[in-house]
């Protein structure tokens, strides 16, 4: 993610609008049409603004305890029609409950909880993670 960890700062990543534009640019450069956007943790700062503005351009959305969910209202979430798999580990007692509380307002969501997994549930329980993700992908149009 630009500007996080050891990556160099990117000026456009300073605002939600800039982060949305950055993600849009990445999709365009890769020639991606209607991708499924998987958004763990800090990537929520990029994925959520994109979802709110361009959710109709996504085939699906898979938030994994992303940050930034409290930046939007229940009404804003209810306006998004993107099929969503809310995925988290049951040992993530920090971000996961807050993210679930906000994301559950997405009208086309379902929830998968990985037992015995923490915040990085895809690392803790990779088989369970892939099973849930593949099940969701199979049911998308």
TrEMBL record:
Identify the gene encoding this protein.
Abhd14a
Compartments it resides in:
Cytoplasm
- The reply to whether Secreted figures as a keyword in the UniProt entry is no
What is this protein identified as?
ABHEA protein
Recorded hits in InterPro entries, A to Z, give: AB_hydrolase_fold
Kindly list the GO CC terms recorded for this protein: cytoplasm
Taxonomic classification: Eukaryota, Metazoa, Chordata, Craniata, Vertebrata
Q: Which UniProt keywords apply?
A: Cytoplasm
């Amino acid at each position: 993610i630009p500007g996080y960890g050891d990556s160099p700062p990117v000026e456009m990543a300073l605002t939600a609008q800039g982060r949305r534009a950055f993600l849009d640019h990445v999709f365009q450069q890769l020639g991606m049409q209607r991708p499924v956007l998987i958004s763990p943790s800090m990537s929520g700062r990029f994925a959520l603004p994109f979802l709110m503005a361009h959710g109709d351009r996504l085939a699906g959305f898979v938030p994994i305890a992303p940050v930034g969910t409290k930046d939007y209202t229940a009404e804003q979430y209810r306006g998004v029609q993107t099929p969503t798999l809310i995925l988290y580990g049951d040992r993530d007692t920090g971000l996961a409950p807050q993210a679930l509380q906000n994301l559950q307002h997405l009208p086309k969501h379902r929830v998968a909880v990985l037992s015995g997994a923490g915040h990085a549930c895809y690392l803790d329980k990779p088989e369970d993670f892939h099973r849930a993700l593949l099940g969701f992908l199979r049911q998308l149009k």
